[in-house]
Write the structure tokens for this entry.
Amino acid sequence: MEKNILLTIEYDGTKFSGWQKQPEKRTVQGEIERALSFVCNQDIKINGTSRTDAGVHANGQRANFKADIKIPTDRLKLAVNNILCGSKNALNAVGDVRIVDAEEKSQEFHARFDAKGKKYIYRIIGGGESNIFKRNYAYQISEHLNAEAMQEAAEYMIGKKDFRSFRAAGGDENQTTVRTIKSIEVLKTISLHGVPTPDKSKVKQKQHFDIEVIGDGFLYNMVRIMVGTLVEVGLGKITPRAVPFIIESCDRQSAGHTAPPQGLYLAEVYYCMI
């Protein structure tokens, strides 16, 4: 009997050429389909909710597939993870992609088309020298950022608007550019780095930001351009009150730069109204 199975997936996007399967390239979709096909002993194709770019990470990517398989659904996760991490004991080995959960859904369910919204998290480290061990997991900026100005600017992005100014070239030109942003939060923490000395000015102070964005859908590179615009606000290059005019212009050139992919995480996919 055919099952429709929904997977929850996490991955480190550093060594992938993005989510979508491509010839002669290592992709998240390709790796998961390879492992599933081996475990299920048949050709498996999955439908993902988000085609994340190269370097982008995920804590909560979702994908579904339909197949007549004999392996129990509750055993599927372990079996596939064994293949993905190249170990017979996935509990003690970690690869760069992992199935977090597997559950059966109705035959009508589709991971992408039934999604009601998504949450992305973008991580930034501001102030001081870059950390080589963070280069693949955060956007590192030498200057300090004004978090209050960034949050003020973010408030102007909330609501149902035409986000054409925040769409990169290469997106679907026939797709509507109207989206609804439910919330944007600029969450800041501060950490101290360096050797403490009597002269406290020699202790470097770094800022750590998580920018959480929840919306009903996103255009190509939309979150990264929104973050790039907020960074320029934080640096004083754009004023918070300029954001409504950037949105109204529907001109990509009026918005900020595209933040690098390494700081972006697909955190959650919602299947109920958000």
